[in-house]
Amino acid sequence: MTETLVFGDLLDGARAFPRRVALSLDAPHLRLTPAEGDPLDWPVRALRSPPDQAHPTDLVLSLADDPVTRLVIRDRELAERIRATAPALHKRPPLQNTTRLIGWSVASVASVALIIFVLVPVMANQLAAFLPPSGEKALGDTTFEQIRSALDDSGFDPVPICESPDGSAALAKMEARLTENLELPYPLTVRVLDHEMINAFALPGGYVVLFDGLLDVAEDPDEIAAVFAHEIGHVVARDPSRMALRSAGSIGVLGLLFGDFAGGAVVLLLAERLIQASYSQEAEMNADIFASETLAQAGISPLGLARIFERFQELGGDQPTFMDHFMAHPDLMSRIERAQDTHTHADVTPSLNAAEWQALKTICD
Predict the structure, then answer these.
(1) Residue 118 domain flag
(2) Does 143 share its domain with 50?
(3) What pTM did the predictor assign?
(4) Residue 60's domain spans which residues?
């Protein structure tokens, strides 16, 4: 009885078309017999099944020491015999130049770290000085609305802005006292959000945002005035714009590496960074100094800054809504001590009278 011949297609990398070869499995070899030329014996132990298989029922073979040549077998019976016979069919070749690969990997990680942690901050600081006020204001407007939406628990309506007439008038009076002797890069936009978070932060374009939770824990208006003055210090130093540019640059680099980020996601990430506003130690210290000097110039006791810091220290991280960036730095005690050492003039008056303070405390009612 004549044995049925089985054929396969041999691609040797030298010709642009496959060669038809007759196949026979006679361990320890798989013999390939072309129509012309000498037969080829492939050792069964050297057969490999590379991961570049295109058809689920075909078997593509290569040799362990030949990364180019491919043999395509479409006969299922022969393919199963080879799978059952070849001991190292799915063995992967060892990595070559491992030391070089590790070196390049380390260099790549170091390059990304250099860009994100050194070059991006330097460029952000330079660009912040040239960013037009209109551009900063537009970024602040967009980020503020993203924050309002992100903080809404229902997912349907943005967190309301508190605007009771008497409370807004009290807040405007406090702002006027604090800014009377200041040269601001742009007009302030002051907002109070109806949210229990104990927080306040600045956004690009002159935004100062306070939360109702902060008003609830403050015991006198000068504590709020101190926080207000601190955030104005960030506005004057353009810290929010630098942070936004750093975040955008870092997100852009990561987007190039791991996939593009949609514009809305970028703004949302910027909002998250800015709402937690973990500035550098130097920026925080400068904002503290600015706040103390501004309070003194406005005839408001700078000791309000020490008192609100003490309030933050008492609250610590125990309350789930506590995200205030004043707690972003562990050296809060030294900041309290510096604020307590501030010289207080005898002619200071409270930032608001009792009625105005009550109106501000209930601005969200």
Answers:
(1) no
(2) no
(3) 0.61
(4) 6-85
